[in-house]
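Subject: Sanity check before I submit

Could someone independently write out the structure tokens for this chain? I want to compare against mine line by line before I put it in a report. The sequence has 345 residues.
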Amino acid sequence: MNNIKVLIIEPSINFRSKLKTELQKYKNVKINSTGELKQGRDFLVYDTPDVLVISKNITEMNILKFLKKVFKYKMIATIVTGDFETDKDLALDLIDLGVLDVVSHTLEELLTEELLKKMLKKIFATSIINVNKEKLYKHAIINKNLENKYKSFNKNQIIAIGASTGGPLALREIIKNLPKDMPPILIAQHMPGTFITSFSLHLDKISKIKVVEAKDNELIKAGTVYIAPGDRHLEIKRKGPNYYTALTLDEPVHFQRPAVEVLFNSFAKHVGKNAIGVILTGMGRDGARGLLNMKKHGAYTIGQDEESSIVYGMPKEAFDIGAVKKQIPLDKIPMYLFKLTRSKY
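---
Independent answer below. Compare away.
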């Protein structure tokens, strides 16, 4: 494992000390830690970390304002911690800004072994990510002349999308640029459940197409995006000529619930050649085998390319096993989906 530098800016002395003690068990980790923003700024300038772990409870400056200043100087792989239960919009704003992970916890959970283990896992996973401003802010566009020319879409098609780290940014760029007359879209995004409702509402507000948090046994309709709720697998089921959502509490797959693998496998089984599968930025291998299964059943499969992926993990796994028919940069995916769903192409 490569050497990594971690900076912790955390007002809780106990949590800061415990996390530092756990990290010091690894010889390849260099840790700077402080409870003061001024000293944290000095570390950022003179000893730039690979990973920044920062609490939303810093008092000297609003966390969003502070990170805007930091990211203007240099994009750093950042994890923000704190209780976001009543501050979900802030969590989404942080993700939009380029924060890679938001770890929500209550005061009671602050010193638990479970939280410490979760933080260690996230720190090491995040340490390998090179965050690039161009990846975060290169916007997708659909040619309006083509959108006006080809209004009729293939009513048999259904789209499945899976994403993890960097996914909220990627999904925003795709969904907000799609026209309202699209086939149904089902999404599995690795995200804490407390944020999914706000994320769905946010996407719905900025998009022409309708975006909802999926409910169980819901008739799937065109012109609607269904996002898996937190801690539930989302599947597609067929009843006669119609398709319905199905939410389950089955065991996590690849440590995830919702899992992209579960969504994609259900598309392979029930939608077959009328499916389009898209695997976006994310850590790990969730969804790779499921996308291959979709391809074997006749689906058209797309993978986000390495250059535009914040984390080229899930798309790479899918590409390496032959699951991806076409690799595309993020800013080209909306137009590509538009063309695929128009029969005249």
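---
OP: Matches mine. For the report I'm noting this point. The chain has 13 helices and 14 strands.
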